[in-house]
Specification:
By secondary structure, the protein is mainly beta.
Length: 295
Amino acid sequence: MKPLNNDPTPEPESKPSRMDTLTAWIGKPLPLFIIFLLMVAMGMLLSARQVPPSNTGTPAQDSTPTETPASLPAETGTNTPNLPTPKPKTATPAPTRTPRFTPTPTSTPVTYQQLTGSIIANQTACRYGPGNLYLYRTSLLWGTKLQVMGRDQASDWLYVQAVDLDFSCWVDVRSVRLPDLASVLEPYYPEKAPLPVSALDVTLRNISASRDDTQVSIKWDAYLLPDSERESPQSPRYVVELWLCKEGELTFTTLFPNQPNLLVADEEGCVASSSGVVYLAAKDGYVGPFEIAWP
């Protein structure tokens, strides 16, 4: 027979092992396993916060603003490039017509000369005046011998007479061979070599001039010569010779208008008075001169 156990004390329960606990957790549903993972992660995060910062890292920058030196401008939001200072533009002077002849000062006594020369162009025009806008007189061929008497001070033309001609005319200095510089020649136009006069009996009427400050308006009645009396339809109808005051000096100017009116600049301050004359251009010379009553 089995002995009876009359001891009322219950038998002590045995504690589950770690293996039994793990087996029990694995056997739980999936949500419980996720909660377990979250708790592990939170524990790791709390442990990381308690670790003191390492001193080997890069030191934090001081948040206190640094005072900008007085010699340097404070920076703005936009970086302005340091551009070089542009150089000031130099105004280009307007071109002026410079004659080849050097004007001789009038205050110094000058001994002028007449020269002998010859034509070095195959053929060159000899004109009534010193320039291509004057009437054509004749042609001179290469080798023609010349007596060179004078020059035009405002252009590059010479006053010459060919050895086989009985009249004088004007040629471009570039067509002439000279033994000396042309500056030794006396200025001839217009005083010593005025424009040749035409045989036409014509008068320009109602020549007038009016002034508005430094502007002088010159007018006259138109006179239209027929083409048969003109050198060509393209030739200027009139020639106007003017002595105008500019910067205190009286300056000679020649104009070639096709209309019977002009507007010119004439200043004050010259010792001599300004003046002018008008010519009518014909095929055999110039009709005039007709004086302008200067205002």
